[in-house]
Predict the structure.
Amino acid sequence: MAQPFSFGFGSEDLDDSVETEVSGHTKNLSDQPTEQGSPLSEPRLHTLEEMLSHLHSSITYTSHYLSRNDSNIDVLCLPRRDLFDIRAQVMAEEDLSSPNSNATAGLLSDDILSGVYEGGFKTWECSIDLARYLSHLLATGQLVLQGLDTRIIELGAGTALPTATLLHHLTSIAPPFLHSTKTHITVADYNAQVLALTTVPNLLLTFVSAQPASQPWLTEGDLDVSPALTSSFTTALHDIGVLISGVSGAWSPAFVSLLSDTRIDSHANDQSAAAVHKPKLTLILASETIYSPSSIRDFTQTVLALLKANSKTPTDRAVALVAAKRVYFGVGGGVDEFLAILAEMGGCARCVWDSSEALGGGHGVGRCILEVGLRFLG
């Protein structure tokens, strides 16, 4: 069986710098109120069925093409729900005069409001990098998802292009390869509305686009969301051993505990006792989550806690892939700051993808993907 990852961490791998456009999903582990004066959202578990229940009867989408780093050849087409369609649904459902109107205002704008809206409706640049990198790992056999139990966790999922890339691969594999194993996908975002209105719709679109059909899949258009479609989605996932759940709320010890709790499996699609078992591979994904100095430590604590919780036996493999700009100008966060805190907390990392090497110069602020692991398991 192919080995999913090699762990060749060393002190020489701890290098690099920071980035520009503010992006991603900043969670704070503290219990302090936000700048707006309201407490941070407590973490909550969401079943796939619950998140699907919020969808309207039709969703409008366009597609993003993932191309190879060294060419303009498209290797994967990922459909995404259009932002205007999300906003239309939010405006139709929200009372703008209610006490929660600040949250609605944040969701309907491009602004990140700490503790209210963390940017999940927008697709950030580094999430595309990570999706492309995962596609490359799958195509070259460096990442193998069949033949072993797998846990996939995307922190600050938002539009979830990295997770959608993996789901597209899983739904394209013939069931005989997967019937004896489980893949548990958990998408996490500060806002429950983001999970219900963006993350899960994009996963549904990915599933539909990957299915054989008499007519070619349109790269843009409207998808009718009927009870029959959502039922076929959940049934197909069950048949190939894929479980999907969501977690909303602030990064905190309770957040980590909820993600580490095996009860999540019993809340997902398959509620049988056989579905509740520990996976062999845990893959933690994150994009644009280290732009704010005030949240880098909290994010690092969360990643390391999840790695440790999923590395309890010698046969367990746990790794995190963190995509970020090297410098976030005007904000203060970045790769150097993250690596320093990571080393302080007993973690280690190596750069596995660099935009300057993969794409050459002239592509703006440098971006990279870090493979993060534990230096000590004790």
In short: Residues 192-210 form the longest helix (19 residues). The two ends are 28 Å apart (CA to CA). Residues 182 and 241 are 5 Å apart (CA to CA). The chain has twelve helices and eleven strands.
